[in-house]
Amino acid sequence: MTEEHPLLSVEDLVVEYPTAHGPFRAVDQVGFQLRRGGSLAVVGESGCGKSTLARALVRLLKPLSGRIVLDGTDIAALPERRLRPLRRRVQMVFQDPYGSLDPHLTAQQIVAEPLRLAGVSDRTERARRAAELIDQVGLPSSALHRHPADFSGGQRQRIGIARALASRPDLLVCDEATSALDVSVQAQVLSLLRDLQAETGIAYLVIAHHLGVVREISTEVVVMRAGRTVETGRTADVLAAPADPYTRALRRAALDPTAMRGLKPRHVLEGSSS
After folding, report:
1. 126: pLDDT strictly greater than 70
2. Is residue 19 part of a domain?
3. Are residues 200 and 244 in the same domain?
């Protein structure tokens, strides 16, 4: 019996930005695999390239080189015409629950929009399915006709998750999806993501700056620093015995309760050599 190929395979990925001083390499030869229904976290301090990596994986950015193989198809260099049918399979939940939702639409309209783009032409059917998704993420029916300004940060993030789930993706990329939330709301959103994965079998790629979040949501972890991978492995193993000094510094920050208030542990990482 042959082994099933991974849902996502990233190979030698390079992403650069143009600057006044020449190209800046934000992601440098990064590679990893994610199995179907699995959960992998990419962790590192602000500016290490992890969010750039996330945007490349959903092709909001085009890589300079390398491969992004989604279920056997390399999407790294696909033109938009050929990429469009694959976009529904990979969706993203953004960091800012306040800026990522259209303030002029109701929650039901926000969640229904991807259904319209996917070709669900019947407005009643779109509304019905949007209502189901809003219920699935734990919001009451009274939320359907309210606007983003009427919700808390955690509730807005739930709407963002419902919107991402509308196209029934195989992979959900969560770019710091809980970092703007306080600790108790972080825990609620992480619990929701775990429950949704158990229910749907969706795979997660989670971008985070704190190993405390990584511990709660992932089984595999990639640690990035300055655009490169410094450590990979099973989350439990990396947390129990980190091999790289940088990962050890992140672990110390995760053990510090004050670092769980949405602050990036840059001060802990600077000059670390232990």
Report:
1. yes
2. no
3. yes
Task: Provide the 8-state DSSP code for 94.
Answer: -
Residues 6+ apart with CB under 8 A from 237: none
Could you tell me if 227 and 207 lie in one domain? yes
In a domain, 20, yes or no: no
Tell me the residue ranges of DSSP E strands in the chain.
8-17, 24-34, 39-43, 65-70, 73-74, 90-93, 171-175, 203-208, 220-225, 228-234
Average pLDDT in the chain: 86
Q: How far apart are CA 90 and CA 202, in angstroms?
A: 10
Q: Is the pTM of this model over 0.90?
A: no
Domain assignment present for residue 68? The answer is no
Give the distance from CA 185 to its chain's centroid: 17
**Distance between CA atoms of residues 146 and 123, nearest Å:** 18
Domain finish residue from 140, 168, 196: 168
Within 85-190, strands assigned E span 90-93, 171-175
- pLDDT for 272 equals 38
Per DSSP, the chain holds a count of helices (H) and strands (E) of 10, 10
Q: What is the pLDDT of residue 262?
A: 42
CATH number of residue 219's parent domain: 3.40.50.300
* Count of structural domains within the chain: 2
Neighbouring CB atoms inside 10 A of 209's CB total 26
Place of tokens 């491969």: 67
